[in-house]
Structures are given as C-alpha cells and as structure tokens.
Design goal:
Strand content: 5-15%
Order of helices and strands: EHHEHEHHEHEHEHHEEHHHEHEEH
CATH superfamily of the largest domain: Type I PLP-dependent aspartate aminotransferase-like (Major domain)
Helix content: 40-55%
Number of strands: 11
Radius of gyration: 21 Å
Number of helices: 14
C-alpha cells in the first residue's frame, strides 16, 4: 500500500484510520494513542474509594477544596477551580477574561484551543480567533510575531485584541521560558491579557526544573490538566485571580459543569500531583528510548523529543499509519494510525521500556517480512 493519500480536506491527528484498534484489555501491552488513556493505579483507586466528599456547588466538598488549595500553592495564584476537562478550563478562562464583543484572541495555529475544541471560543465568547504560525526556523511563537498581529486600534471595522493564548508543551515540545517572558512583557505594554493552556505544563516543569509557580506567574490564567500524563481519570484545574475564578465558577454552572460529590475525582488529582508528577521525567526518558529505536528501524523523527511525545515519519519505508495500526493491534498495541505519514505516539507512566521493546520487535519482524 502506498504511503500517499488521496483524501481531500483537513485530516485530524485523532483520525483512527481504517485499521482495527480493538485490543482486549487482557491482551493490551501498550496504548500510545494519547496520555489521556491511562487507567487509575491500584493506589489511586484506594484514595478515590476513601475520599471525603460534600457538595461542590455549595463549595463544601473537602477533597475538592484540598485540591484547589494545593493548586493555589503549586501555581502561586490566589484562586483555583476544579473542572471536568481541559477544554472546559480553557473556555472558562477565555470567557472570564473577556468582557463583550467585538474582541479577538491570538492563538498558535497548531494549538488545541484553535484546532480541537469544536470552535468553542466562537460559541461561548463570540471572539475572533486569529491563528498565528511561528516564523521560519522557530518551533514556537515569539513576541515580535505576535505583536505584528495584534489589533490595537478602535476602528469600527476591527475586533481589538484582548487576549493571547499560548500552549506549553505543544506537540511535546517545551516553550522556551525566555520567549514566554518576552511575550508577557509585550502583552503588558499593550494591555493584553495572557492565558496558558498548560495541559502538559507539568511535563515542561519536570523536564526543565522550572517550577510550576515560576511558569504560572507569567499568565493571568492557566489551565492545568490532571488526566493526561499525570494519570488521573478526569479533571483539570483553572488558576487565576479571585475575581476571575469567581466569574469562572459562575460560568461553570452556566455551562452545566457544577460538581456535586466530585471529591472522589479530586482525590485522584491530589494523588497524581503527589506521586506521579515527581516521576514524569521517566516518561520522557522512555519516549527518547522509543524515538531512538524507531530511528534505528528507519522511521526518522520529525520533531524534537523533549518530553513524552514521539513524532516520526512512516513514508521513508513506504508505510501508512493504518498499516502500522493493524500490525500493532494484532500484537496488543494501540496507536491512532491514519493515512498521514507523520505519526504521533504518546508515552505515559503505563508505557514501560519493556513494552517499547515489544513494539520494536513486532515492527522489526513486520519490516523483515516485507523484504
């Protein structure tokens, strides 16, 4: 099968391809589709079962309160709000930071907010999203590029820029800290607010040694996901000022996102911060090991492996992701697959070096059989 595709239109990296991904739980060796696929560990299940709960709409769930207090301490922001998903915390932040249209929001053209949140900004906030690509030779946005796209006048034909949204990590790559500082200074100069989709900021902090508080101090609001590499089954926390979080709590209820006895899930988040966060660098080491093994097989990486994502190209070996998907599913491994040559495999704490060795052995045998 040729690695080329005649499919028209935009193709999502979440496309499952045409290959089967049905792998019985008892036969599953590794799931590389995303770091959202982790299942609670035995220790996490125990803390979930024993969690004290209340009614969070009345703000009296003690475990949710404890999680929000922990995130205030971790981020250095004075207030926080536990929600169901990272999409919800991103959208609550944007809605709470903006007042009334007309207004525009600048985002990275590759970002989750722009590509994978169902046009929620347009729906909830009536804001114009302006996607920006990094300048040539850069993997991340820089202050000079963003500044050129700001709409600062009050001409009636325009939607003034009120917010910039960044993402760290993005595609597994770490946003350079000095570039974030420069963007913050530029935003302050123009009176523009700054939000961070920090779904995987934990990974950036673990890898660089820059504290979560130091990162978060540069933003008006930060969305911190607990259900990706952190390994909790559900949940994301929005941090910001007391005024913004009070407004976000109101919008959360409006969105239908008020918790009742959500402390069962908050307990998993606390456990993840205390026990999984300190070990995230192990996932990064496993990802680099996986990348090295794939490169040796003839699959070159297409992006830097700085945290837990491995992006590589199947076309040098005239393969599609769908072909890999079928072969690996038959051997207990799930991937997204699809017709695109570039593949994204995501490592998490339930992907071990041993499972990587299994994957590489399966691929090596498959490639040998094609010769």
């Amino acid at each position: 099968m040729s690695a080329s595709s005649n499919s028209a239109g935009v193709q999502s990296m979440y496309s499952a391809g045409s290959g089967s991904t049905v792998v019985p739980a008892s036969a599953l060796v590794a799931d590389l589709r995303s770091d959202t696929v982790t299942t609670p560990t035995d220790e996490m299940r125990k803390v979930i079962a024993s969690a004290l709960v209340g009614d969070d709409v009345f703000e009296d769930d003690p475990t949710i309160n404890a999680l929000e207090d922990l995130l205030k301490e971790t981020s250095g922001h004075p207030a926080s709000l536990f929600c169901a998903t990272g999409t919800m915390t991103n959208q609550l932040a944007i809605r709470s930071l903006l007042l009334a249209p007309p207004h525009s929001v600048l985002v990275d053209s590759r970002s989750h907010i722009y590509n994978y949140e169902s046009s929620a900004v347009a729906h909830h906030t009536q804001a114009l999203l302006i996607p920006i690509a990094p300048k040539e030779g850069k993997r991340h946005l820089t202050a000079d590029v963003i500044e050129r796209h700001l709409i600062l006048d009050d001409d009636v034909h325009h939607a003034p820029t009120k917010l910039i949204c960044l993402e760290n990590t993005l595609g597994g790559e770490i946003f350079p800290y000095e570039d974030i500082v420069a963007i913050r200074e530029m935003a302050n100069k123009h009176g523009v607010k700054l939000h961070l989709d920090g779904a995987r900021l934990w990974n950036a902090s673990a890898e660089t040694g820059i504290s979560m508080e130091q990162y978060c101090s540069l933003f008006d609001t930060v969305s911190l996901c607990l259900s990706k590499g952190m390994g909790a089954p559900i949940g994301s926390v929005l941090v910001g000022s007391k005024e913004v979080i009070k407004k976000a709590r109101h919008y959360r209820k409006l969105f239908g996102g008020g918790w009742r006895q959500g402390g069962l899930l908050a307990a998993a988040g606390i456990h993840a911060i205390n026990h999984h966060f300190p070990n995230l660098k192990n996932d990064h080491e496993t990802a680099r090991y996986l990348a090295a093994q794939l490169t040796e097989l003839g699959f070159p990486t297409t992006r830097k492996v700085e945290t837990n994502m491995v992006w590589f190209d199947t076309t040098p070996l005239k393969l599609t992701g769908t072909e890999l998907q079928v072969v690996l599913a038959a051997n207990g491994v799930r991937i997204l697959g699809g017709a695109m040559g570039e593949q994204r495999w995501v490592v998490h704490h339930q992907v071990t070096k041993q499972s990587v060795d299994h994957i590489i052995n399966v691929l090596r045998e498959f490639l040998s059989s094609r010769q």
